[in-house]
Specification:
Length: 196
């Protein structure tokens, strides 16, 4: 076995997952950090300055801050960094887009993956959202003994994000957080592996 395998597997379990109430939208962007940690720190410092809060320490590997009605979490990995915004999902189905990724966001590197994960209660109305996915590449999975369904077509939306939908009929906030984190990790590492 590869000598780094235990550490890589341990990384998955080292990060605590968030408690997530529904309905929520999670948007994560992952960036290669070719320019180094200083660029990441500069981006985080600017975001912190805009919010009037202290910037993270220069050697920090993770940082979290409240952003609008949601929160922004940043993590530095060996070759890339991730910015994950979690916020409320409006009743009309659109995210209340006060995410940090709009005007004024300066990416710290090349985007390698982006995901938009919506978590909704499983209802007849939310089931109709499945029709918005490409049926030729639809992936539909039941998890947690049928308590949730995961739907994606692995295609990008107009913002360049891979869309995923979780329909929930009984997950706890802890289970929702763990599932969300794993789905985002799968998409991030799937894309990274395909980029070589």
């Amino acid at each position: 076995a590869h000598e780094g395998r235990p550490g890589a597997i341990g990384e998955v379990h080292a990060r605590p997952h968030p408690l997530i109430e529904k309905p929520r939208v999670l948007i994560q962007l992952s960036f290669m950090t070719e320019a180094g940690a200083a660029v990441d720190h500069a981006v985080l410092s600017e975001l912190s300055r805009r919010l009037g809060i202290a910037a993270p320490e220069r050697n920090a590997r993770h940082h979290a801050m409240k952003w609008g009605k949601g929160s922004l979490r940043w993590e530095r990995h060996t070759e890339f960094s991730t910015y994950l915004w979690e916020g409320p999902l409006a009743e009309n189905g659109r995210g209340q887009e006060d995410s940090p990724f709009g005007n004024g966001f300066s990416p710290p590197g090349t985007v390698i993956s982006g995901i938009r994960l919506e978590i909704r209660k499983w209802t007849q109305a939310s089931e109709r959202l499945i029709a918005g996915f490409d049926p030729t590449s639809l992936c539909y999975s039941l998890v947690e003994r049928g308590a949730a369904a995961i739907i994606t077509d692995f295609r990008q939306d107009g913002d360049g994000l891979t869309r995923m939908l979780v329909l929930d009929r009984g997950l706890t906030p802890a289970s929702t957080g763990a599932l969300s984190q794993r789905l985002i990790d799968i998409e991030t590492y799937r894309t990274l592996a395909m980029l070589g």
